[in-house]
Amino acid sequence: MAGQLLLRFAVVLHRTVAGRAATERLQARRNAALRAANRRGVSVEELAARLGLSAGWVRQVLNGRKPPEMVVDEAA
Description:
By secondary structure, the protein is mostly helical.
């Protein structure tokens, strides 16, 4: 019984955290929170510093544009 409950919990976590659609949903929520914080007086510089992102990237999000995807170099 406990094993089946743990399996169901793992499936729920997998579906909410993994996958492209889940990632896009989380990013959309994050971007909405950024816009709301900015509307309430939080500066672009503070948003960028707290998130570890560039101010230009944050400005793109605030203006409703989709920032370019980050490119990760793989070591060969």
